[in-house]
């Protein structure tokens, strides 16, 4: 009996050990399969991550971004600079890539990259010291121009029409979007009596475009980027003079139209502030010409009667908005005008300006140089 019982127990133990071994094999198989799946998923995710990191940041964005690579910069610091300026997506992947490709000897200097450039294009530029991607178009917008004049220049230089440009700068939804995007644009530009909301805010400069058919939005925002960069430097000075940003831009546009040299601008800005302080009208002819909507060799007495919130012969204080774009010099003169006792000035036919403290002196200059 005991021998048969021992045989039964041995058999049961053998079966139990067999089931346990099968269970262990199943668990091991599941664990190995799970690890393989995790490694496969990790490999796919890693591959896609690296692949994405090596692609252009924004393939459709041809706007130039100026970057300085200081002398003696390491590849690590160059990678960080490129990532900070959103020219590459990931500095670590960039470093691994250039190490794998055995790339080196990057040149210091000031570069212009675009977010559409490939990693290899960026590397080639850094190696060759080629500081800029060649623009398809280069357009210079001078100081003292209205939006309509700016539209005409772009229509002449780029594959757009004046109508397309003017339609975009009068698009109410787009203007509201820009107000959200740029701190220099305030609700003052929404005044319905303004001819163009962005008048004065499209900065005078030379602009490069890197695509064959640049959208109008890119053109406008390139100019606003420049305005933002320049005007932002003077925010504290503007506030100290008791002006709003819109008032400062408006005054700068008038100073721009009335003077050529920095010395003239500072003197005339000071005269305008003297007039404002005593409640005297600014009485400046460029505002009359803007109100008339055209150009004239000479402003007539009858022109001074035009009914417009821009006509500074008819209103006290500043007009409701800028009359043109302006140079940084005109803005700097607006926030740092020359103090004087002058209240009057006039231009002669040779471009000289004569300043006066009294109306009698002013009229005497007028008789001598104008009449």
From TrEMBL:
Q: Which residues cross the membrane?
A: 27-50
Q: Where is this site: Important for catalytic activity?
A: 258
Q: What is its EC number?
A: 4.2.2.29
The record's section on Pfam families has:
YceG
- GO cellular component entries: plasma membrane
**Catalytic activity entry:** a peptidoglycan chain = a peptidoglycan chain with N-acetyl-1,6-anhydromuramyl-[peptide] at the reducing end + a peptidoglycan chain with N-acetylglucosamine at the non-reducing end
Q: Indicate the segments annotated as coiled coil, or none if absent.
A: none
* Compartment(s): Cell membrane
GO terms, biological process: cell wall organization; peptidoglycan biosynthetic process
Q: Which PANTHER family match?
A: ENDOLYTIC MUREIN TRANSGLYCOSYLASE
Q: What is this protein called?
A: Endolytic murein transglycosylase
Organism, scientific name: Ornithinibacillus hominis
Q: Which gene encodes it?
A: mltG
